[in-house]
């Protein structure tokens, strides 16, 4: 069984992007690349996360300054549809396009590359249900598959992870693996071997 949803149009993605860069959104909220990372983790994970919960993470538990109820319904509807689109792509065994360059080298001397921000938001999605991700029979495999995300995110202080993060060739290889690993993680939870 498979299901399909209508992908967001370029105009709808632009609308979301513009909204996230507007003054209506709390300063600590995710941007659209971070939203994509968070929603990937939520759709991959072993347990459903209600939209109300992940919307709170996106906006850092602050309510945006909505221009109207209609704008709130529009933006939240687009985010729910984006989540469904990512879930459908994974369910249909298709590789997800990560919406940024697969490199940790920042563009234009920014503090973070887009991929680092994406992986940090992905890890935030995991932290919402960390026990379900990292306990149980799949724990060792999950930890192995998540290692590149942990290294690239630069959120972890363990010496071994820090050492890998400093090695440019190891790090570049891990960045390149991320799209394929998303599929592997999804299959681990949703199509385990008998």
Key phrases:
9 helices; 62% helix
Task: Give a topology summary.
Elements: H1 10-20, H2 32-44, H3 51-58, H4 69-91, H5 114-127, H6 130-134, H7 139-153, H8 159-166, H9 168-190
What does this structure look like?
- With 194 residues, the chain is mostly helical.
- The protein has one domain: Up-down Bundle (Four Helix Bundle (Hemerythrin (Met), subunit A)), CATH 1.20.120.
- Helix content is 62%, strand content 0%.
- The chain contains nine helices and no strands.
- It has helices at 10-20, 32-44, 51-58, 69-91, 114-127, 130-134, 139-153, 159-166, 168-190.
- The two termini are 18 Å apart.
Quick gist of this model?
The chain has 194 residues and is mostly helical. It has helices at 10-20, 32-44, 51-58, 69-91, 114-127, 130-134, 139-153, 159-166, 168-190. The longest helix is centred in the middle third of the chain and has 23 residues, at 69-91.
């Amino acid at each position: 069984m498979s299901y399909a949803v209508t992908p967001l149009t370029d105009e709808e993605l632009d609308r979301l992007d513009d909204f996230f860069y507007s003054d209506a959104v709390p300063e600590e909220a995710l941007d659209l690349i971070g939203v994509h990372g968070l929603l990937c983790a939520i759709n991959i994970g072993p347990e459903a996360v209600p939209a109300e919960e992940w919307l709170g993470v996106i906006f850092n538990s602050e309510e945006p300054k909505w221009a109207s109820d209609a704008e709130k319904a529009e933006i939240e509807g687009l985010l729910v549809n984006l989540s469904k689109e990512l879930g459908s792509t994974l369910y249909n065994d298709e590789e997800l396009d990560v919406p940024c360059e697969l490199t940790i080298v920042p563009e234009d001397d920014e503090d973070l590359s887009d991929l680092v921000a994406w992986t940090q938001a992905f890890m935030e999605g995991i932290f919402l249900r960390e026990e379900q991700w990292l306990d149980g029979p799949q724990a060792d495999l999950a930890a192995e598959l998540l290692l590149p995300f942990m290294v690239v995110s630069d959120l972890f202080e363990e010496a071994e992870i820090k050492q890998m993060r400093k090695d440019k060739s190891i790090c570049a290889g891990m960045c390149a693996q991320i799209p394929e690993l998303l599929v592997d993680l999804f299959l681990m939870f949703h199509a385990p071997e008998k």
